[in-house]
Structure formats: structure tokens, C-alpha cells
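Example record

The entry below shows one chain as it appears in the dataset: sequence first, then C-alpha cells.
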Amino acid sequence: MFTRSILAASAAVQVLMLATAAHAQSNMEIEEVVVTAQRREETAQSTPLAITALSADQLEKQGVRTVTDLTTVVPGVQIGSVGGSVEIAVRGIGSTNNTEVGDPAVAFNVDGVYMARPRSAAGLFFDLDRTEVLRGPQGTLYGRNATAGSLNVITKKPTSEYEANAQLELGNYSLIRASGAVNLPFSDKVAVRAAFQTAKRDGYTSNAPSNDYNDEDAVALRLHVLLKPTENFSLLLSGDYFRNDYVGSASAPLGQYAAGGDPYTFPISRDGASNQQNYGLSAQADLDLSFGVLTYLGAIRNDLVHTLAGSGRNYRVGAPRPPSSCDPVLGLGCNTIYFDSDEQQESHELRLGNAEGRFKWVGGLYYFKETNNVYANIFPLVAFIQPNTYSDSKAVFAQGTYSFTDQLRATAGLRYTRDHKGRTGGTYVALNSNGGCQMPGGMERPFFGAPPPGCLLYGNVADFTWESTDYKLGMEFDLTPTSLLFVSTSTGYKAGGYGDGLPPLNNKYEPERLTAYEVGAKNRFMENRAQLNLSAFYYDYQDFQVTGTGVVAGQPSAVTVNAAKATLYGAELEGTLLITENDRIDGSAAYLHAEYKDFALLGGDSFSPGFADYSGLTLAKSPEWTFNLGYQHSWSFTNDGRLTVRVQTHYESSKNLDYHNFDVTEQDAYTKTDLIVTYDAPGGVWSLMAYGRNLEDEAVLVQGSPDAQNVNRVAGSGAYAPPRLYGVQLSARF
């Protein structure tokens, strides 16, 4: 059904294109974006993947300032900021386990370096060359945690031309954002590019009696040094630093606990303070050999978090709220959360590839290692102390594309992966605010055997290894020089994991595995003034990993389980039309059906003890329909100045944000509209932009969990996207 709908839509768009052809100017063309999605340079239109690539100019014109803004311009993608982390879902597949043992389902890469912690995506989105959003499993070339897709951020690199720019943005909630970059070519062998961004903004939630959460006070720096000692060798050395020293992110009460009030106004028991730092170094060496290019990419990174936060008051509507009690069932006082995390990662990739001739190929080796030291104290109730959390991943991969004719090509790829994960830690009770034990026996007691009196409730121990071999097979055919048809089948894999406790009862969950089938078409018409891309897909998921809020030691905690079988299918359409030299329309539509076919928990969960069956329910973050539509018009003045007005809107049908599909975690259908007005001065030396985002002032829920601790299906907590934002930005180029 959805295939017929896409064909009908395609025909309608082509009729519109032909009708406007007489008005189009011959010198107009849609911008070509060069991507490296297949580890070689090629245009996005010639890449046989469902990929949305946005250049730096497109990101600016469409008002994409943060990674979460991509939701409004990329079909089939859901991106939200939750508790300082960025959760990315593609075609209904994502992960909400942002703890030290969780893995994302969408790989987030910056300049080819995989970022293990979802927090990393928040601070690196500036001075960009382009973004590439790859939909569908990328199991062969990207491998690690690219089950649903990959989001590749490519920053601007040093060039042979001097360049400098600066931006100053002022907005509501007292926003002040400044950014800039300078490119310095010292010689034909050495070039340097440096960039920075600072942002300070008041919190958009009112959380009296505490200070206001969901604010920002961040600084980010990046430095690239490009060395070209010979014609066939280059070395790119890069470093970056990000720090956000802010109040913190707050979860809002939902359902009964929200008391029908403003979703951006709710009490929190004490002032918050959070410091997040993310920094790293990387090196990429490229050696051009006679038969291919040898590339080494290595990186080391640190992610540090220190947080102090209060708790909300989870009371039903009309219930009395004693100042000493935060919990309506247990009558306990408000908790204080102390959280510290020190994550370190390193990665190494060595690959050899050839992008010339009839047979294009790439192969390589990959190694990744991550360690984490976590201290989480929900004072005075329970603490999770995990000083030794570790994982490593090793892989070997190869993929090649062979051209049978100038129009017909075939692709085959294979990847073997071995993952090793584990930890040693414990769950503690009766600790003081400094993390010390207040009971006889102290902190130390054995994980196994008869425990002496002390503060350790139970040990958290795990050590597991998984292996997977993934493949990709595809065919592509050039119907015309500007029309590409492709079909593929591929597999994806995400390593398993574990929860709290001792083996074998430590809530181990299995790897998830996906077999995907996809067919698509990429087309340009009217001398490259019109573009229409279509794709349809079918996913067969085994052991899909589902994370929800469970109860551990009497406290809410992330618990991950396997859904034995899930089925997803859908279709996507993207189009752009240059009506005249001054008029542009772009948009996309996505249809998605995502359902748990077999999801039974033999041990049940908090809401269904003993046995729970969620078969037939909809996957979280999978709206049936999403639409993006943008229109912009420009006026050129006699002094060579230019005024551009762009309006764009994003629509989603209703979706649920939790696997239980309770009403409390449902986000109703909504529309968000942006307006962007830009004046470009003659010669492009400066520009002034005014914007309004989310003009409807819609409160959009991006994360939600029912209250498992109190087994309350009509109440819970969640996170909302920002309310209406507006401001102005002045940009200068030197």
C-alpha cells in the first residue's frame, strides 16, 4: 500500500516539476553534497543508501543550530535531549538506556570517530562542513552500534585559503551565543583551522523552590592541524574541548503528578549544579599508494560528569503535599542525587581502499575500548557504585562495488565483530551524603558468600562476550544519468548487556539482530532543478533491546529486556524544487509501521508481576506519519543585497515513548513551525538573521516513563523539548 502511495506522490511531484519548467532559469541547480558514507567521496545522489546530507549552507538556511534540530528536516528521525544526553532514533529504532552500560542504536560519529556516550552529541555541533544521516543498518562499514543507522558530523578542515568568520546570537531566555572560526594556510604543507562556540542561556523550566533547570553555560573549542609533507601523504591532527557548567536537566512530572499544570513549571526540592566535560585528540593519516589509499584513524576521548540535583514531588492531583515528603506512597523525604562519571575511550581504525576503476573496494580493522568509573548516590536511599565498567570491540571488515556496465553495479560487504563487556561494582544502602557507610562493617564485604553487616546490598558483577558476522548485498542501476535505482539486503547487530546483580541473575540481555530489505530511487529532473528521492524498507528484528524504567533496590532504574521479535516497515519521500531563481520548496514524508510481534516477559515487570505480554504494541518513538515542508523566497536589491524569508513546518502523528504504551507516555499529534528571515549584505560580508522556532509554543514530550516504583500507570516523569524560541544572529565574514 505504501509503495503505491509513494508512486502516486512521485507522479504528482513530476507533474508539478514539468508545469514549472517553463519558469525555471537555466543557471539554477540544486546543490550537490559530497559525502563519504561508503568510505569514499561521492555525491549523495549517487550513493545507493537512504541518506540525507546537509551542507553547511543548508544547515544555516534551515535553522539547524543543534543536533536535535535535525528532527525537523530529516525524514524518519527522532532526536531529543534527555538528562544531558542526546537520544537518536531512526525509523522507530533507538535506545533510551543512557547509563554507563547502555549502547545507542544509532552510531554518532564526528569526523569518523565513534562517540560512545550519548552526551557527546550535545557539544560538538559547530563549524560544520556537513551532516550525513544514514538510515538503515550500517553493519559492514560502521559496525559498532549502527543497527538503526549512523549520524555522521563532518567538521570544516584546514584549506589553502585564508578565511575567518564570527557570529553573535541573542535570544529569549537571555540567550547569548558567540562563535567563530579562522583558517590559516601557513604554506602549501601546513594549514590550521581553529573554531569556538560559547552559549549562555537561562533555564526554560521554573523549578521553585530550587533554581531553574534546563539552562546552558557552555564553551566549545576545536583545533585542526593539517600537514602535507609530500604529495601522497597527509596527516590531520585534531583536538576538541567542550564544557557545560550549568544547573542541569530536569525531568517533568507526567499524568496525575503533573496536576494539569504548565509542563515547564514544576517544583524540585533543591538547587542543582552540573559540570559536563568532553574532550579528545585524534589523528588521521592518509597514504596514497599506487593501488589504493591507506588510512589510519585513531582517537582518545574523555567524558566527565559531576551532578548534584534534587527530586520532584510526585503527588497525585489534589493530594496534600507535606514539605517533608516527596513520595505519596512511601512517605519519604525528598532525595538528593549525587552523580559522578569518568568515561575514557580509545579507538583505532586501519583501512585500505580504492575508489578508482571498475571495482571500488575498502577493507580494514577496527578496535574500540571504553572504561567508566560511576558513582550514583540517591541519598539517603540507595547508591550504585561501579568503579570498573569496561567494554571493548574488535572487528574486521570489507566491502566492494563492481561495475558490470556503466549503468549496472553490485555491492557486497562482510564484517566480523567480537564484543566483550563487563563490570565490577555494587548497590549500596545507608550511605551518607559523602558516600561513606553509616553501618557496622563498612563499605567492604564480599560479593559472594555470607555477607557481614555493612552497606553493600548486593554486588553488580558481569563479564560477557558476543560475536557476530554481518553482511550487505546490493544492486544499483542508472536508469538515466540523473536517476538511480537501488535494492539491498543487510544485517545489523548490537551487543548484549547486563543489569544489576550477580551472575546468573544479573538481568543479562541478548544481542539484538536485524535483517533489513530496502528498495529506493534517487532522481533529478529539469536540468537538476528538481529532486525526488524515495525508499521503502522492511525490518525483521530478533531480540530487540527494550529499555524502560524498572525498580532496583526499591528505586527507579533503567532495566533492559529483549523483545523476541519485532517487525517494522515503511516508506520515505524527499523532494526539492527550485521553482524560480528566488523560490524554493523542499519537504519530506515518512510512513512507519513498527510493532512488537513477540514480546513476552516470563518473569513479568513492575506493572505485570509474574508474566507480562506486550506483543502487538507499538515500538517507542515510532509515529505512523511525519511530514516536513519548507518554502523560501528571496528578494534581490539593486545594491546586490538579498533578503530571504523561509517558513518550515514539521508534523508528526501521535506516538508513544515507552514500551508499555500507557496513555501517560503518549505524545499527541503536533505541528511545529519555524520562521527564518535573513538579510545578506552586498558581497556576503555580513548577514543578519531573525528567527522564531516552534511558533505554536508546543510542549513536545521527547522522553517518558510511567511510575514503576509506585506501580502507577497514570503518572510518571519525562522530558520536553524546548518551548518557543526566538532571537537574532549577526554573522560576519572576513
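Notes for this example: Confidence is low (pLDDT under 50) at residues 1-26. The first helix runs from residue 2 to 20.
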